[in-house]
Write a structure and sequence with these properties.
2 copies of one chain form a homodimer. Chain A has helices at 23-33, 42-54, 125-132, 136-161, 165-168, 178-184, 209-212, 232-241, 321-333, 370-394, 408-413, 416-421, 439-449, 453-463, 475-481, 494-505; strands spanning 5-11, 38-40, 58-65, 70-77, 85-91, 95-102, 107-115, 169-176, 205-208, 219-222, 249-255, 259-264, 269-274, 295-302, 305-310, 318-319, 351-354, 357-363, 366-369, 401-407, 433-437, 464-466. Chain A is built from 16 helices and 22 strands. In chain A, helix 8 (232-241) packs across helix 13 (439-449) and helix 10 crosses helix 15 (475-481). The radius of gyration of chain A is 26 Å and the shape is elongated. In chain A, a hairpin with a 3-residue loop joins strand 5 and strand 6 (95-102). A 6-stranded mixed sheet of chain A has the order 7-6-5-8-10-9, with helices on both faces. A 6-stranded mixed sheet of chain A has the order 21-20-11-12-13-22, with helices on both faces. By secondary structure, chain A is of the alpha/beta class. The first copy, chain A, starts with a strand and ends in an 18-residue tail after the last helix. At the A-B interface, helix 1 and helix 2 of A face helix 1 and helix 2 of B.
């Protein structure tokens, strides 16, 4: 498998009066024999003497693909082929994750993450954009913060592994949404969120690392995006899941501040984005918080009591996305809320009235309010409707859905069962409901190791058809129907209906066989 | 004709919600429609906003060929296609000449020259090489001096024309010998003159101007060389004369400190280099000097007197190459020296003995000595023998020689008649003996305007066969025969024999018809 970098060991003949080819030509000719047409960077030209002689013409060249040709970006004495490294970066708006990849063994040697230093200019993207909009100096600050975060990762990797990016790193692949790429390259990102939503550059391609301040020998490739809301992180997810290659129809859902959805197979790719919303990340509920120490991330109602799992095993301070999904599912299955999500105060003494509103005390001193539920259900309805609408648009029944990939932290931490119970995910074979993990990072790593994926990216971008959700007449109507738990049309959620029946009657219904015996505490 | 840069005016549709392609894609798509596959540099990506909007999507893009693909290196508002400039540089060891070329009209708008600031590190190349050999700091100084000289030229051009290289220059082509290119790129040039004569890099290709400190938007292309002594200046001469394209067999002779010779046609190219020597430039004779103010550059003997022309019309201080060639021819035609170049004291009272040696007082107080003549004849013999030997090597009679190009200042200033009379040039139809002028610069300009010449260069390098003069047994023997004036074998110089006959007898011989009535005072 050929990646976007190469290291090749050459044993060359020393020059003689009969064969007085230049050092440069000697190297290029040798590569040409191996079928590699390359050019030599100025840095390497300067390094040839006295290196070639001292190394007795036993050399290792490092090559980086620049989008058009192989560039020789370094030359070293002796055989260093086994020290061949690259970097994959998931440039998230909150967290930046970097992997050191051994391009010989194709293994990830180290993964580190840091908060994105852009946060200094606003915790949410829009604040950052308003900070840099039409303000060149601010844009430079944000660019610098972005690069510093990546460099911080590289430094941490060097501390952990002894492998220095500037001494041994050839290429880097960065995957990030359109705003992040605009920030990285010092572009005004206001365009991402303002009509007509035409961004400045979505395919920067291969840039010299040193041009943007990233200390590697070769190039930084930013995975291109499709549109303002469908950035390189989603295209990278396509590379990770390979769903554009199969016959089976898959859906790829990245739920974060925004929700981005792609459905399709090797024949077609429909994509869209919408405000799945911060609600799902615990952003708008009264006691919502990020999934960090002190957050309730798992909830189970047993014998009339709420049992919560707290991240870090300490005192609970609030509840994060996966905790909320669990909580709602449990409240519903136990009848504490009805199909419309309304509290049934007679079902538990934990349901109280505070500040003129019903709420449940899910943990001592922590309350989940009726308006928290209402808000959350709107968001989950929006997310579900995106999927539903997209299927309708493609003329395909949701029953034909092969795999449903859920990307990101949400996909990794949220319980499948709970998410189906509340109608956030479609009711389907659990085996085919797959957490895609950090697919943005996975795709970046894949590209680092597989150059031909550059063609796949062209193919994906070509094939993708963008669907504007806002533009459709009955999207709102569909969304209202989806605000029920799990849905106004219970037929769509047979296993939820079955579970309910069991819980209420103690008997199993036939469809229940699809339900797995997943333990939400272990997952 | 397509050059290595382009300016293209685009009238693009403004983005709408229906067509929300990125600014970048909008530009690339439009170029693609014109059949141009291009990539966008980071500098341009950063410049897109707010430029595109302010310019109402009427833009001019500047493209520079990078050796593999068209790079968009600038974007400007409005139609600036008519302001499309490039630079051609002859990087000589003594003088650096730069031309500003209008790439639309293909005209040279301005030509300036300066002494190469490397001279601060040695007037001759070898001194400079010994200065920088294995001394990185010195190498950096020489590199800086080289770039400063080119930048000095660019500044002078800007002062004269108002056209700034960094604001409006796209590409630059530099033609120089192998040592000059090594100096420009901070490479140790000792390899050029030391066995096994394998240099470090002879084909640096397209380098970003800013990487080597040259303020242009795009790339600097250094014309590649064939070997240590046959540098880019000679390859550039090939482009200028196009002798590798015709059926006619031509010779190209660049006489400077070294002599470089190429003979051939579209079928073959033989090349070689040898110490034609500083003698020809007036370097080793007692009163020799460069062709500047105070140098005798033309000599005629009339009525027993030497009539000299002095550059700058002032008092003579010495004699330069063209003056020496004239002087020797006149001494010989008037019988003051014999066929072996020995003074005949009885022929003129101007022939005297000074410091135990015969000499001629060619100008009041200025003497040309017997050992000056002997030295010069050795050099002219070496030069002639290179041509003769090369023909013999190729199995072609010198009678088949179509054109004889003499490059550089020597070719421009030396009288053809005198050079033939002393046997420096072969005795041939004067119309076919052509001064190629500054063919190094001409070739660079041609390449700037004609991208397909890049293929020609590959073809030339492929076709060229290097002949080692030192390696042949009878080279020395041939050279001894060529030390006579014009040659031991007078049959080779029929028009000289005829001229001699006329002068001595007052009658014309038949061959004389070939002799032109050239005035050496006007040429």
């Amino acid at each position: 498998m050929e990646g976007i970098s190469k290291k090749i060991y050459l044993e060359l003949d020393a020059p003689t009066e009969e064969d007085s080819r230049s050092d440069q030509k000697r190297i290029l000719d040798s590569l040409e024999k191996d079928g590699i047409s390359a050019v030599m960077s100025l840095a390497v030209i300067k390094k040839l003497y006295p290196l070639c002689e001292l190394a007795d013409w036993k050399l290792t060249v490092s090559l980086g693909w620049d989008g058009s040709i192989w560039q020789i970006v370094d030359v070293e004495a002796g055989n260093t082929v086994c020290r061949h490294y690259g970097f994959a970066v998931d440039l998230g708006s909150t967290t930046v994750v970097t992997r050191l990849v051994d391009c010989e063994t194709e293994e990830c040697l180290c993964e580190v993450s840091q908060y994105n230093r852009q946060i200094a200019f606003g915790t949410d993207i829009l604040t950052r954009i308003f900070y840099e909009k039409d303000n060149e100096a601010a844009r430079k600050e944000i660019q610098a913060a972005t690069v510093e975060t990546i460099c911080g990762n590289l430094k941490e990797i060097e501390e952990k592994t002894g492998i220095s990016s500037c001494k041994e790193g050839i290429q880097m692949v960065i995957s990030g949404n359109t705003t992040m790429i605009h920030f990285l390259l010092e572009m005004d990102a206001f365009c991402v969120f303002s009509t007509p939503y035409a961004v400045h550059a979505d395919a920067p391609g291969f840039l010299r690392g040193t041009d943007i301040g990233i200390p590697i020998k070769g190039y930084v490739y930013c995975i291109p995006g499709k549109s303002n809301y469908l950035g390189g992180d989603i295209i990278s997810g396509m590379l990770a899941t390979q769903m554009y290659k199969g016959e089976e129809i898959s859906a790829f859902f990245d739920i974060g501040t925004n929700g981005e959805l792609v459905i399709g197979n090797r024949e077609f790719l429909l994509c869209g984005a919408g405000a799945a919303g911060p609600a799902l990340e615990g952003g708008v509920v009264h006691t919502g918080m990020r999934a960090c120490d002190g957050a309730v991330d798992r909830v189970k109602i047993e014998n009339g009591k709420c049992r919560c799992h707290v991240i870090g095993e300490g005192k609970a301070k609030g509840i994060c996305g996966s905790g909320i999904v669990d909580l709602l599912a449990e409240l519903f299955l136990n009848g504490w809320i009805n199909i419309k999500g309304k509290f049934q105060p007679d079902k538990s003494f934990l349901i109280q009235e505070k500040e003129g509103m019903l709420c449940v005390e899910y943990e001592k001193g922590l309350y989940f309010y009726q308006d928290d539920i209402d808000e959350f259900l709107k968001t989950k309805a929006a997310a579900y409707t995106m999927v539903e609408y997209m299927f309708r648009e493609s003329g395909i029944s949701m029953k034909e859905l092969g795999r449903f990939y859920v990307a990101g932290a949400f996909g990794k931490h949220v319980s499948k069962e709970s998410a189906i119970t509340i109608g956030l995910y479609p009711d389907m074979d659990r085996e085919h409901l797959v957490s895609a993990g950090n697919s943005s990072l996975e795709g970046a790593q894949k590209l680092l190791l597989q150059k031909e994926l550059l063609n796949d990216i062209e193919e994906i971008l070509e094939k993708m058809v963008y669907v504007q959700f806002g533009a459709v007449g009955d999207f709102l109507q569909m969304m209202v129907a989806a605000q029920a738990i799990p849905h106004t049309d219970m037929e769509r959620f047979p296993t939820v209906a079955s579970a309910l029946y069991t819980l209420r009657t103690g008997e199993n219904r036939v469809q229940c066989s699809r339900r797995t015996t997943e333990s939400r505490w272990i997952e």
